[in-house]
Design a protein that fits this description.
By secondary structure, the chain is mostly helical. Helices cover about 70% and strands about 0% of the residues. Helix 1 packs antiparallel against helix 6, helix 2 runs antiparallel to helix 6 and helix 4 packs across helix 6.
């Protein structure tokens, strides 16, 4: 029975060995593995284009540009602007913290009410399966309640601390997107080079298409 690779050798006029290697078998290996589930029938140039599209994304370049623009904006800030932004930031974080605490209290109240009702069933039943199911429910509530703690975001004490943290975070973003973008480009370039080297070897041994 033909496999997902061999069927193309005999159907629709078949495939020459050199094309089968480059357009199909190569997809099972690292340099083209990201194309394994792509449609068959891609030419060599289309495969190289797909590798570039999948591996050399412009995502990090775009994000890097955004954070660099953000840094340029902040570099123009006066102390008054930093203080104003800090006050807005602190007010927002305080509100979000209060909302998370309120939600935590609501959830815990439901847990405790449900736990009490489960315990009441256990205390008043002689049916062992019913009691065991309720005991399991209580254990689940205990686990959930112990894990459910509202996330409280720390608010900087003053605008100077806020400024320092903001600029530190931006610098981290710049370094991250710079490095990740460089690695993406290198990885994509290496995979395309490996594919091209294999093409040269296959063509040298089996001959180029005439």
């Amino acid at each position: 029975m033909p496999t997902g690779y061999t069927y193309v050798l005999t159907e629709n006029g078949g495939k020459k060995t050199r094309d089968w290697i480059m357009e199909h078998l190569a997809r099972a290996f690292g340099m083209c593995i990201m194309l394994r589930d792509d449609p068959h029938g891609l030419s060599r140039e289309e495969i190289k284009k797909r590798i570039k599209e999948k591996e050399i994304s412009d995502y990090h370049d775009k994000e890097l540009k955004k954070v660099q623009e953000e840094l340029a904006k902040y570099n123009e800030y006066t102390d008054e602007q930093w203080e104003e932004e800090y006050n807005t930031h602190a007010e927002r974080i305080q509100k979000e913290n209060e909302e998370r605490i309120k939600e935590s209290e609501r959830v815990c109240e439901i847990y405790m009410k449900t736990k009490d009702e489960l315990q009441r069933v256990i205390n008043n039943t002689t049916h062992e399966i019913t009691a065991n199911v309720c005991r399991f429910g209580i254990e689940q509530i205990k686990t959930s309640k112990s894990d459910y703690k509202p996330y409280i975001e720390e608010i900087e004490s003053n605008w100077q601390e806020y400024k320092a943290r903001t600029l530190k975070d931006i610098q981290w973003d710049i370094e991250y997107h710079t490095e990740e973008g460089r690695e993406d480009k290198e990885r994509g370039s290496d995979r395309i080079s490996a594919y091209e080297e294999m093409a040269k070897e296959v063509d040298r041994i089996l001959g180029k298409e005439k």
